[in-house]
Amino acid sequence: MVNRVDFPTTIGGDGSTVTDDDSTVTGLANGGHRKRLVPMFSQMVTICQFVLNLMVGYVAQAAAFAATAVNAPGTSSTSTSSNAIPTVGTDVSFTTQTGKAWSVGQWVIAAVNTATDNNIVGQIKSYNSSTGAIVITARIVGGSGTFNAWTISVTAAQDSTLTGRVTAIETENTRLVARRRLLYKEIT
Fold first, then answer.
1. Quick one: which H or E segment has residue 36?
2. Are strands 133-142 and 76-79 parallel, antiparallel or unpaired?
3. Residues 109, 152: contact at Cβ < 8 Å?
4. Cβ contact 125:137 at 8 Å
5. Domain limits of the chain?
6. Residue 46: how many CB atoms within 10 A of its CB?
7. Higher confidence at residue 44 or residue 70?
8. 6 by DSSP, 3-state: which?
9. Which of 1, 156, 182, 184 has its CA 20 to 30 A from that of 58?
């Protein structure tokens, strides 16, 4: 039985074939390795580079799709309403963009743009899609102070029995950017 390795052009190869027999055209036996072994390894490296380039493209495309989804009209907004970090159970009012697809009971995080450790995680009590008025009932809070630059994003449901400071709740966009940077560093 003859073993063979093909290097198809569809995956970056040059279309050549290498076999383990004594073929004068493709074989490695009877001295054929002197002529074909190094080019075979070169083809393997070329194909690996081709696949790596495909993967880099797919990672970038996936990150772009994810960022688009995170920034979709119904999942993220900003607000310049001046609000203090409240106590748990307090209703907090913001004015944000209109036309969001938010619903009562949905979990959101309102994070200060310049210091995301200052945040409010809670459930939407009301949202008026015509005016952009949203009321969030704080279930978990982090930080302290009064701020007027917020990003409000959907988040996963939280354990509403938790109290105290949440030290590291990131918006989904921040997580995706961090993951993309990490993947890019691992690939390059």
1. helix 32-70
2. unpaired
3. yes
4. yes
5. 4-69, 76-187
6. 15
7. 44
8. strand
9. 156
| Structure-block tokens of residue 79 | 């607000």
Query: 182-188 contacts: CB < 8 A, separation 24 or more?
Result: 183/59, 183/63, 184/56, 184/59, 187/52, 187/55, 187/56, 187/59
- The string of pLDDT tens digits covering residues 110-163 is 999 888 889 999 999 999 999 999 999 999 999 999 999 999 988 877 764 444
Q: Helix axis angle, 32-70 relative to 172-187, nearest 10°?
A: 170
Reference 138, options 170, 173, 165; nearest CA is 165
> CB neighbours of 119 closer than 8 A, spacing ≥ 6?
85, 109, 110, 111, 112, 141, 142, 143, 166, 169
Helical (H) or strand (E) element with 52: helix 32-70
Give the tens place of pLDDT for each residue, 81-125: 999 999 999 999 999 999 888 889 998 999 998 888 899 999 999
* Per-residue tokens: 139: 């279930």
pTM of this structure: 0.49
Quickly tell me which residue has 């950017």 as its tokens.
177
How is residue 176 written in tokens?
């995706």
**Phi–psi pair at 139, nearest 5 degrees:** -110, -30
d(CA 151, CA 21): 66
Closest CA to 124 of 105, 140, 142: 105
Degrees, nearest 5: CA angle 152-154-159: 110
Reading the block at residue 40, the tokens are 């075979």
